[in-house]
Please model this.
Amino acid sequence: MTQPSTAVQASGRLRAAFLAPDVAGTVRWLPDAVLTWQGGRIVALEPAARAETLPHENLLVLPGFVDLHCHWPQSHVRGAFSGQLLPWLRDSIWPAEAAFADDAVARERAHTFFVEAIAAGTCAGLLFGPPFFSASRICAAVAPRGFFEGPALMEVNAPAELACPSEQILHDIEGLPAEARRTVVVSPRFAPCMSQAGLAAAGQFAARLGLAVQSHLSENQDEVAWVRALFPSAQDYTDVYDRAGLLSPRTVMAHGIHLSERELARLAHSGTVLAHCPTSNEALGSGRMDLARVRAHGVRWVLATDVGAGPLLSQLDVMRACLEVHARAPVAPVTATETLCRATASPGAFLADLQPELAGLGTLGVGAPAHLVLFQQPLPALDAESALRGLLAQPRAALETLPQSVYLWGALQHSPARHTTPTP
Ligand SMILES: [Zn+2]
Model:
């Protein structure tokens, strides 16, 4: 392998086996190919020529994962707590997030989060922050290009140390320089923590500034019942967000487990993306997203970790869980190659719509960011499906640290011998 020349103008060539997913849901299998990148972007991926002198590295290479639903201030307690959603939030997660009012805590944990997420192969994503604007700015200062983040908005039904009027945080966001503002995600934590007026203000703000939106939707039956009681004039949970103008192709809603036909149709029509988080759903006993109905309605969906309910930062673990939970009746057949597309190319396209410089994110296409995750090739494989299944057959506990090396914008960010600070 030719090592990158510098961290800024990263260039290199690599001969290995590649899995190249695309937004159409197919994965190209190249058992012996050469990838070339220059200036941090891919310029070619071609089968190795007969006269190729570069040695095959016996590596399996995937594009960097893209995680559209992850709480960075919960990463240090990922998988540490259990229980149903609402008591889990009140008793464990919110007290843990309160510590991020201290900038020194936020600085240390933001740095650790990116080191660990990149080591797991995640190279871009949408992050939920703690409900503190200053912690959010600390995260943004160390976030590699391609990560978007927003402070959680929590107005009501929240501990006093976490509650804050949305107007104040939105005002702070608006005061940022335009360049800094464009990676901010408007992030109402979930409907029960918001007033109707606060939700509407968030919706108007996101639309006016063209910002992404993220929240949670219909994760748990108790939560759905609570929303019904809090917003009696809304048709359903989805309608609470819809009437606030929060559903659009720039919106990611996590979970969407307990949804009616009307809600699924409305999500599809609005272009909203559902983040399917099977490891989180299993951990909190929330249920299983109805993939067959999501597909039937044509709702956009991606796979995401939902750390810290999800116990690992690894999208490989989420892909493994997706295959496992949907293999049980009632069956919604899913292939390993589809799970890869939902963890790379599909969420990559969502972020590229927000920022054109990310075009091709989550693929190995020409012009795409050279985000590369390198694995020791487990076993010889005949096709993309068997190559991926071989990778996912590794012990679950090993998946988070399975990548041998990770390149971000063509520069080596992680290898077992080297834990570097991500390049901003
Ligand atoms: Zn979440």
In short: Confidence is low (pLDDT under 50) at residues 2-8, 418-424.
